[in-house]
From TrEMBL:
Annotated ranges, domain Peptidase S1: 1-244
Domain of life: Eukaryota
Free-text function comment from the UniProt entry: Plays a role in neuronal plasticity and the proteolytic action may subserve structural reorganizations associated with learning and memory operations.
Annotated organism of origin: Esox lucius (Northern pike)
Species classification: Eukaryota, Metazoa, Chordata, Craniata, Vertebrata
Subcellular localization(s) per the UniProt record: Secreted
Protein name in the entry: Neurotrypsin
Full-length numbering of the shown residues: 587 to 835 of 835
Amino acid sequence: IIGGDKSIRGDWPWQVSLWLKSQSKGNHPLCGATLINSCWILTAAHCFKRFGKDPSRYLVRLGDYHTEERDDFERSLSPERIVIHRRYHSQGWEYDIALLRLRGTEGNCVAFNPHTNAACLPAPGNKSAKRPSACVITGWGITDSEYSRTLLQAWVPLLPSWKCKKRYGERYTSRMLCAGSLSDRRRVDSCQGDSGGPLVCQGEGGRWALTGVISWGHGCGDPSFPGVYTRVSRFLRWIDQVINSPPMI
Ligand code: 4AZ
């Protein structure tokens, strides 16, 4: 996260970190992710580009705050299944969305507590609802120099799509969201290591909804190249289908 602040422990209880397991080199943080119910975690498809989709190679850590200290509520689990959107192609950035299933029975995989809880999905079908102004990105990714050890947060404004269209051309599509700093005085952006993590926006009644998945962009914190996010509202049916269909054996 560029231009962010240290978060407060427990403020973003849906934040998950995704790790690559390695016995020789120690586990290695790869991506952010978001808990969306007791059994499912939403992240970016490109997180699996390098090391594949064998769930046994990964760990997810819930309730984490400081990556190198043991927090009272943190828990590491291995995912049971990884589902990558079938239209995702590793050469591009379209359909950059994936779901991870945790082990457990029917809606009963992890217990929620003040440090582990699910984010809401956006309400379906209210396209006309006014654009939320307050959105927050969170992650342990690159700051100005290195990965952060504590969970960082940053407020980012959602930008009109034409701003990303203008910069990125055809690569920016209606299944993406554009967000970032408006002025060059304060650079605010997501960056490498944050991807897969949440962009949440606060709606009526103070309810936070998972509006975007941190996905890509040209560099980080460059005011002329905003960050690009997977537009979660376009994938509600896909999410529902994956979660509610029996696993293929
Ligand atoms: C990345 O490499 C990445 N500035 C994530 C987000 C952004 C750029 C790169 C957006 O995962």
